[in-house]
Amino acid sequence: xxGKSSGNRLLxxxxxxxxxxxxxxxxxxxxxxxxxxxxxxxxxxxxKNNPENSENQENNLDNQENTLANNPEITEENGAxxxxxxxxxxxxxxxxxxxxxxxxxxxxxxIAGERDGExxxxxxxxxxxxxxxxxxxxxxxxxxxxxxxxxxxxxALKAQAVAARTYTRYMLSNGGKHGGKADICTDSNCCQxxxxxxxxxxxxxxxxxxxxxxxxxxxxx
Length: 221
Fold this sequence. Notes:
The chain is mostly helical. Helix 4 (154-173) crosses helix 5 (200-212). Strand 1 and strand 2 form a beta hairpin. It contains five helices and three strands, in the order ααββααβα.
């Protein structure tokens, strides 16, 4: 029994040694093989994933192109705002230029009579608070427009022109009511009536009345 038991133990020890030896060689090989196989697998996965990355890059490029495509719209909006602002400034400048041109034309082309044309007045617009410069002849035309209908008889318009000129000269000789700011104003409750609401034909008729009485005023004694 002792010999048989010893043989079994020896056999069991031998089998155990063989199994351990096999394990020592097989396990590293298996691990190495797994590692080696994983590397190509990872590369394959990377290769497979690269198209996704490329697709993402293409999407990014598309987004950039969309952004660039949108920029002209933004630029156009900014341009529209700047254009609107510039147009407003240009309109203001044009209006100012128009007023200046009107004053220049008034002083040059609308002088009604040589004597009246020599006197330049500072006329206060009571509605806007602005002071306008014009010759006496032009001022009298606009006073006539405000005080008497242009369809009145020429002699009536001439008499009104003389009366308006007399009052204006009297205010100038007495310093007026506005100090150094203006010689006279457009408020009928303060000075004389004043209007520019006339047609070209009416303007010619009123101008003729002022020119034909150029420099004439009424005096007492």
